[in-house]
């Protein structure tokens, strides 16, 4: 079970709404007990249906456990490009789809398998 702090989820929802119709991208961090409790916004160019990540500017941070990005459409299933990038950013990957709320979030492992998750305070 993946545990994610409520403030991280709320920030993901708001950031996705604010960048719509472009994609939002960030990294996920865990500073204690395998709980996702950080959102690391990295230099990127948000596009329509893609995000160009400035990977050379991503900080070396051993607390990074995965990534999150938005899909401007109604599907939160990982694309082939998503699956190819998952291994570059850790083991936990969130995809949030339009209309960007708690019900449109899915969590995946690096192979695209859905993972159980819940929000904690």
In brief:
This protein is α/β, with parallel strands linked by helices and 121 residues long. It has a single domain (2-120), classed as 3-Layer(aba) Sandwich (Cytidine Deaminase, domain 2).
Q: Would you kindly provide a written description of the structure presented here, covering whatever features stand out?
A:
The chain is of the alpha/beta class. It has one domain (2-120): Cytidine Deaminase, domain 2 (3-Layer(aba) Sandwich), CATH 3.40.140. The chain is 17% helix and 35% strand. The protein has helices spanning 6-19, 80-86; strands spanning 2-5, 25-29, 35-36, 38-40, 44-46, 51-53, 64-71, 92-97, 105-108, 117-120. The strands form three sheets. Strands 4-2-7-8-9 form a five-stranded mixed beta sheet, covered by helices on one side. Strand 7 (64-71), helix 2 and strand 8 form a beta-alpha-beta unit. It is globular. The two termini are 15 Å apart. The model has no long low-confidence stretch (mean pLDDT 89).
């Amino acid at each position: 079970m993946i545990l994610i702090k409520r403030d991280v989820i709320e920030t993901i929802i708001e950031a996705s709404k604010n960048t719509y119709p472009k994609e939002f991208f960030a990294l996920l961090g865990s500073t204690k007990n395998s709980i996702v409790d950080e959102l690391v916004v990295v230099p990127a160019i948000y596009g329509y249906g893609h995000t160009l990540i400035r990977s050379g500017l991503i900080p070396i941070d051993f607390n990074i456990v995965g990534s999150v990005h938005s899909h401007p459409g109604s599907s939160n299933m990982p694309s082939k490009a998503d699956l190819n990038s998952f291994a570059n950013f850790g083991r936990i990957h969130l995809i949030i789809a339009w209309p960007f709320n708690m019900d449109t979030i899915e969590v995946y492992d690096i192979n695209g398998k859905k993972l159980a998750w819940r929000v904690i305070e």
